[in-house]
């Protein structure tokens, strides 16, 4: 496991949604890192849903006393990056492209703003392949010269803990992953995580 003494203490944490950040953000702070958040959001549709998730991320940052950068809402860019993949099922090629878009934008922001390390909340989800997420994180980070901090947050019952914490903190929990295509794959809110 990379420690802050090796690579500098400033971590940019890519945040897919507030509930999923309730475990990773405090955990990285507990490891001794300085951790700020980055919320991308072009993969979240429609805009009203993005606003609710954004507000929830801002609320969590306030509760933790940390800074979060909210990327301007740009679904058009996300549709360009995932073009031709609308028919793919959740977990397939569209999601791979989506992870690349989210983590790519995060790594550019990290490089431009002096963060030496980058990580993500995405691996807390039981619906996402943590090995793939970490592989894409390594790939995009190597392009921008930022160090990838691999983690698998769903280990040790991380997802269940995030559900409990988000309920205690009064954070909005979404009912679908985010994009317009994932609405058709709606499942119960208790099973859902971005
Ligand atoms: S289902 Fe989720 S991860 Fe997959 S493309 Fe849609 S928003 Fe992205």
Structural features, described:
- With 194 residues, the protein is α/β, with parallel strands linked by helices.
- The protein has one domain: Rossmann fold (3-Layer(aba) Sandwich), CATH 3.40.50.620.
- Helices cover 44% and strands 11% of the residues.
- It contains eight helices and five strands; from the N terminus they run αβααβαβααβαβα.
- The protein has a five-stranded parallel beta sheet with strand order 3-2-1-4-5, with helices on both faces.
- α7 (130-144) links the parallel β4 (117-120) and β5.
- α6 (93-112) packs parallel to α7 (130-144).
- The longest helix is centred in the middle third of the chain and has 20 residues, at 93-112.
- The protein starts with a helix and ends in a 26-residue tail after the last helix.
- The model is unreliable at 1-7 and 188-194 (pLDDT under 50).
- The structure holds iron/sulfur cluster.
- Iron/sulfur cluster is lined by residues 43, 90, 94-95, 98, 177-179, 181-182.
Count the E strands. 5
Identify the CATH architecture: 3-Layer(aba) Sandwich
Summed up, the helix count is 8
* CATH class term: Alpha Beta
Low-confidence residue ranges: 1-7, 188-194
Observed structural traits:
8 helices, binds iron/sulfur cluster, 194 residues, alpha/beta, 5-stranded parallel sheet, Rossmann fold, 5 strands
Write the layout of secondary structure elements.
Elements lengths: L3 H4 L2 E6 L2 H4 L2 H7 L3 E6 L7 H18 L3 E3 L4 H7 L11 H20 L4 E4 L9 H15 L2 E2 L9 H11 L26
Parallel strand pairs: 1-2, 1-4, 2-3, 4-5
Helix pairs in contact: 6-7
The protein binds iron/sulfur cluster.
The site of iron/sulfur cluster (SF4) has 10 residues, from helix 6.
